[in-house]
Amino acid sequence: MNQNNLKLLQKKFKLYGGLGSVDFNPNFQKSIALVSLNNVESKNALSPKMMAELSEIVDSLENTSHDKNYPLTALILTGNKKTFCSGFDLRMTSSDNKFKGKEFANEMTHLMNDTLRKFSKLSLISIAAIDGWAIGGGAELITACDFRCLSKNAKIKFVHSEMGVTTDYLTIGWGGSGRLISILNQKEALKILVSGKTLTANDCLQNGLADVVSEESSYGSLTDTVSINPVIKKSLDFLNDFIFVDKENSIMRSSSSIKSFKKIISSFSEEKPFIKFNEIERDAFVSLWGENDQLMALERKIKIKNAGENKKY
Ligand SMILES: CC[C@@H](C(=O)O)C(=O)SCCNC(=O)CCNC(=O)[C@H](O)C(C)(C)COP(=O)(O)OP(=O)(O)OC[C@H]1O[C@@H](n2cnc3c(N)ncnc32)[C@H](O)[C@@H]1OP(=O)(O)O
């Protein structure tokens, strides 16, 4: 979608309105942002207004400024109060018939497809911190993240095949099936999508949809005090292992290297010829070589070598 059409859709969806908000905290933790879905009365369903907000946040994410010592390299996507997200806010359909129409379905799928495609291709490492339900469009959202951390009470359900009233125009509309195939495989994705089975944390750990499980679930509202939200805390631990060489002393890995790897990996897709993929990989390598982060890393290595007995290089 071109940028002008996207801006028009964002504007239109803001006017369509609805309850709730998508909140963005770029300085949640060193180098990590937090995006949270807040529409608690409807289990964090996304209203049109929230879709526009999410789309704008994703657009701004690549350029968000951050503490210069800890450039933004990762983000957590979560839902407020013991639920991740229950998909599209179905209350909209009783407030106005246009939300039951094909025109709206078409706009929604364009906006959400664009948002989640961009989200999954961000140069930031993303993790969905999932407590309670991720259902319908909510299940599709978690497929846009690189990783998923589930509480033991999490439930994932691609409800689409069950939605008798709406399946003729609201099929799997936010790009989740393609992404589910790339996370799992065609056979597993087919089973999950067609059966609409509710997947527990254990199911997801077994089939590979979950990367980590928190034995505790969250106790209450989401706050910046991560210690009271175990799913967020577990997600942070998971991310910090990627980001820091030495967590105790807050020594980061090269942020440009992390972001570059994320860009390279997310640019790979089966439709793209390998040659194109190799080109992207090559360009990234050349652009990093000789830059500050690499030179500093080399210097660190040389110091270690000179200090130690191992004189291989
Ligand atoms: C491409 C997107 C599109 C798609 O194709 O799938 C969609 O996303 S359509 C929406 C798909 N989502 C659903 O079908 C989920 C519907 N909700 C449920 O099945 C259940 O509510 C739940 C999520 C499994 C939770 O069940 P439970 O814990 O028993 O809570 P309640 O059912 O009592 O819910 C509390 C409260 O929240 C309201 N609610 C829940 N989901 C939605 C929603 N998607 N839109 C609007 N409101 C929602 C529910 O009605 C309750 O409200 P009150 O009765 O006023 O308390």
TrEMBL record:
Its EC number is 4.1.1.94. InterPro entries: ClpP/crotonase-like_dom_sf (IPR029045), Enoyl-CoA_hyd/isom_CS (IPR018376), Enoyl-CoA_hydra/iso (IPR001753). It is found in: Cytoplasm, Cytosol. Its main location: cytoplasm. One of its GO terms (biological process) is fatty acid beta-oxidation. SUPFAM superfamilies: ClpP/crotonase. Keywords: Cytoplasm, Lyase. Pfam families: ECH_1. GO terms for molecular function: methyl/ethyl malonyl-CoA decarboxylase activity. CDD domains: crotonase-like. It catalyses: (2S)-ethylmalonyl-CoA + H(+) = butanoyl-CoA + CO2; (2R)-ethylmalonyl-CoA + H(+) = butanoyl-CoA + CO2; (S)-methylmalonyl-CoA + H(+) = propanoyl-CoA + CO2. The keyword Cytoplasm applies. GO terms for cellular component: cytosol. Belongs to the enoyl-CoA hydratase/isomerase family. Decarboxylates ethylmalonyl-CoA, a potentially toxic metabolite, to form butyryl-CoA, suggesting it might be involved in metabolite proofreading. Acts preferentially on (S)-ethylmalonyl-CoA but also has some activity on the (R)-isomer. Also has methylmalonyl-CoA decarboxylase activity at lower level. This is Ethylmalonyl-CoA decarboxylase.
